[in-house]
From TrEMBL:
Lineage: Bacteria, Bacillati, Actinomycetota, Actinomycetes, Kitasatosporales
Sequence intervals crossing the membrane: none
Record organism: Streptomyces wadayamensis
Name of the protein in its database record: LURP-one-related family protein
Pfam family name, one: LOR
Family note: Belongs to the LOR family.
Length: 163
């Protein structure tokens, strides 16, 4: 499953659409403006919230939490003791750990589990500026979760760059 993400660099509240390979709108990343912490909602085309993404207010390292309803799904943070600055760890609520690594700010990175590729995020496939692709490789992966992971990693990397 391949998706196309068109970011709005200066959009109020950071709202942007995610389209499928055929150009149909599938998800809306709805950034919540005027909040103390970065907060996003991933919605379907009917406006239903599929996933909430929030920055943790109190943590030693910048951390984002992905939730569905009131249920926590995952925590995303920079990998500890990593020589590479562009390496993140996704801790799933079931204990599974996913690795995210690559050139995050260039939108060229991979999501892996135990060395197996789950998703690839890349600008190479697309010619439009401020657009990148999310290719969910495994059929059993939840596309909304993969997109939420990408949003978290990019948000954390950009925040670190700006600090």
């Amino acid at each position: 499953m391949r998706f196309q993400v068109r970011e709005r660099i200066f959009g109020v509240g950071d709202d942007y659409w995610i389209e499928d390979a055929d150009g149909r709108k599938v998800y809306l990343v709805d950034g919540k403006a005027m909040r103390l912490r970065d907060t996003f909602e991933l919605k379907d085309v009917d406006g239903r919230v599929l996933v909430d993404i929030r920055q943790k207010l109190v943590s030693l390292r910048d951390t984002m939490v992905i939730e569905r309803g009131d249920e926590k799904l995952a925590t995303v943070k920079r990998k500890r003791l990593s020589l590479l600055r562009n390496h993140f760890r996704v801790s799933m609520v079931d204990g599974t750990e996913l690795d995210v690594s690559g050139r995050i700010l260039d939108r060229e990175f991979a999501v892996e589990y135990d060395g197996e590729l789950l998703a690839q995020i890349s600008r190479r496939w697309l010619t439009l500026r401020d657009t990148y692709g999310v290719d969910v490789v495994r059929d059993d992966m939840d596309p909304a979760l993969v997109i939420a992971i990408a949003v978290c990693v990019i948000t954390l990397a950009e925040k670190e760059r700006d600090d």
